[in-house]
């Protein structure tokens, strides 16, 4: 089964906001692990980059729009620019994956209940096998729930029919 690693919205604008991103340093380090293994094994890596409008923390062209340096794309790694929550909505992402024969997506990134969730669910509707890196996505506390509960809820919900859950340290590409 041909796999790709998908890194969603790990951009500088997600860090240093008035609300702290839950375990941001740990999560970035966990994302870096599968990136390194994917590069070593020549597994395609797609970086999804949200292009927010003017004044948005991820506004295109702003410092916040840039990828976090610890997980930035290497030369030649595709970047999918999006304006909606799902990496597939109004982008050529699906076509790029189909061109390469990709059928399995390993997904990590930001923001758990928004772009990570939307991308996982959209991928399933398009027929992809989805692996969610259960300890390599994060979010912020909301007015209703702390980030830990949001992450746990989404791991449980997405793991119940949308995605296979796997810890970052256990991601393997060679077993496709």
Biggest sheet descriptor? 6 strands, parallel
The side-by-side strand order for the widest beta sheet comes to 3-2-1-4-5-6
Which structural class do you get from the secondary structure elements? alpha/beta
Mean pLDDT: 96
| Distance, first to last CA | 5 Å
Please tally the β strands and state the result.
Answer: 6
Q: What form results from the Cα inertia axes?
A: globular
- Count of helical regions: 4
In quaternary terms, these chains amount to single chain
Quote the beta fraction: 15-25%
Radius of gyration: 15 Å
The sequence of SSEs as H and E is EHEEHEHEHE
Helix content: 25-40%
Low-confidence stretches: none
Brief sketch in words of this structure:
The chain is α/β, with parallel strands linked by helices and 176 residues long.
Which features would summarize this protein structure in a list?
six-stranded parallel β-sheet; 176 residues; alpha/beta
Explain how this protein is built:
The chain has 176 residues and is α/β, with parallel strands linked by helices. The protein has helices at 24-40, 93-99, 112-125, 147-159, and strands at residues 3-8, 45-50, 79-82, 104-110, 129-138, 164-166. The chain is 29% helix and 20% strand. The chain has a six-stranded parallel β-sheet, with helices on both faces. β1, α1 and β2 (45-50) form a beta-alpha-beta unit. α3 packs parallel to α4 (147-159).
């Amino acid at each position: 089964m041909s796999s790709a690693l998908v890194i969603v919205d790990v951009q500088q604008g997600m860090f240093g906001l008035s609300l702290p991103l839950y375990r941001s340093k740990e999560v970035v380090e966990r994302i870096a692990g599968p990136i390194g293994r994917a590069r070593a094994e020549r597994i395609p890596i797609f970086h999804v980059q949200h292009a927010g409008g003017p004044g948005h923390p991820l506004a295109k062209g702003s410092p916040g729009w840039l990828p976090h340096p610890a997980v930035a794309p290497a030369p030649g790694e595709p970047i999918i620019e999006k304006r909606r929550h799902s990496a597939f909505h109004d982008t050529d992402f699906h076509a790029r994956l189909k061109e390469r024969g990709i059928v399995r997506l390993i997904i990590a990134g930001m923001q758990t209940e928004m772009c990570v969730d939307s991308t996982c669910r959209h991928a399933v509707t398009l027929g992809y096998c989805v692996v969610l890196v259960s300890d390599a996505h994060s979010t912020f506390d909301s007015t209703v729930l702390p980030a830990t509960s949001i992450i746990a809820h989404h791991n449980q919900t997405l793991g119940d029919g949308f995605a296979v859950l796997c810890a970052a340290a256990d991601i393997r590409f060679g077993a496709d």
